[in-house]
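I have been asked to look over a protein record a colleague put together. Alongside the sequence sits a line of tokens, each denoting a local backbone shape. Please read both lines and tell me whether the tokens look consistent with the sequence. I do not need a full report, just your reasoning and any doubts. I have pasted the whole thing underneath without changing anything.
>
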Amino acid sequence: MKSLKSKKSRGRSSPGSGRGFRVADQIQKDIAQLLRLELKDPRVGFVTVTEVEVSSDLSHAWVYYSVLPDTPEQKERTHKGLSHATGFLRTRLGKLLGIYSAPELHFVFDDSIAQGAHLSRLIGLANQGQEAAASSSDTDKS
């Protein structure tokens, strides 16, 4: 479950909007399913919907996604494919949600997963450096 803090940090989906969060969560599930099962665009590869935020009037939805592999070429292909499929996804989403007007979809690449992996690698390297320094100082004391 997403925390309120992460949704609040991007400035949309006000914390008092319980319906907005419920709609955003349902949109996230439905978009992920549509991408996996119904979208046949070869430009859209392995996409993970990381978060969805909706405007207070539910007329816009920002769909944050990540892609593997996250090379610049694959990111560009995926973004073009998702932009091209926006109408199809919005139509199917409206039917699945059963609401009067489906929100306009805005796809935004989310690089937080890549940033997290990079930080993990840096922490791992720092820990290896500390272990190496500790082991060399232990042999110097002997």
